[in-house]
Amino acid sequence: xxxxxxxxxxxxxxxxxxxxxxxxxxxxxxxxxxxxxxxxxxxxxxxxxxxxxxxxxxxxxxxxxxxxxxxxxxxxxxxxxxxxxxxxxxxxxxxxxxxxxxxxxxxxxxxxxxxxxxxxxxxxxxxxxxxxxxxxxxxxxxxxxxxxxxxxxxxxxxxxxxxxxxxxxxxxxxxxxxxxxxxxxxxxxxxxxxxxxxxxxxxxxxxxxxxxxxxxxxxxxxxxxxxxxxxxxxxxxxxxxxxxxxxxxxxxxxxxxxxxxxxxxxx
Length: 267
Hints:
Elements: H1 2-17, E1 28-29, E2 38-44, E3 50-57, E4 62-65, H2 67-70, E5 75-80, E6 94-98, E7 100-103, E8 117-120, E9 150-155, E10 170-177, H3 179-185, E11 195-198, E12 213-217, E13 223-231, E14 243-247, H4 252-258
Antiparallel strand pairs: 1-10, 2-3, 2-5, 3-4, 4-8, 5-6, 7-8, 9-10, 9-12, 10-11, 11-14, 12-13, 13-14
Family: Belongs to the peptidase S1 family. CLIP subfamily.
Signal peptide: 1-16
Keywords: Disulfide bond, Signal
């Protein structure tokens, strides 16, 4: 009886320190060429301070990201075609210093709504199996909700609260939820139709993933970017709350007017 009691105490002790949630907030490791549109952004705020974001290649000359990633910075290094954001010796990786940033004019006054920006590359980037632009929604999809579709987000952000950014590209999948469900999940935030939200119960993008592309596989089987990762709950990326992305279909005109991306009328 005494040995059973000791065994029971050991079980309690072990369970107390075991992970209560086995979600991998940082997602799964990507493979080379799996997400050829993914871009890492190492942003320089001043001589001493750098930060990290993500983005997507939308043409040979432009990267799409979040306004919060490039607002107030001097320059950034865009990393394309590789998996390790800080490994300058990774074979086949394209690393380009960029200084030309186009931030949506509404970002300064309402950063949670107009959180979108373009980065102009100094020279066109050559396409390959590892570097290729992602498609944006067409004009017929402006009113589409993408509700209940499985979406994918990629980035080099943190695995969870209190952890460091990932050295390797990772991806996670989550279901698109309604605007109402998003408002219930994040009652203290402003959630509008210009946002698209994903369920956070099985995983979430985290700090360091801002600007990351949110994509779906469209009706014609082609990967289409429907969002740019913007913000999460103040409770953090392990809270199970919704993740909020800037809805790309709300900014097609702005993207078309400020880049060489041709906005399609239909599939």
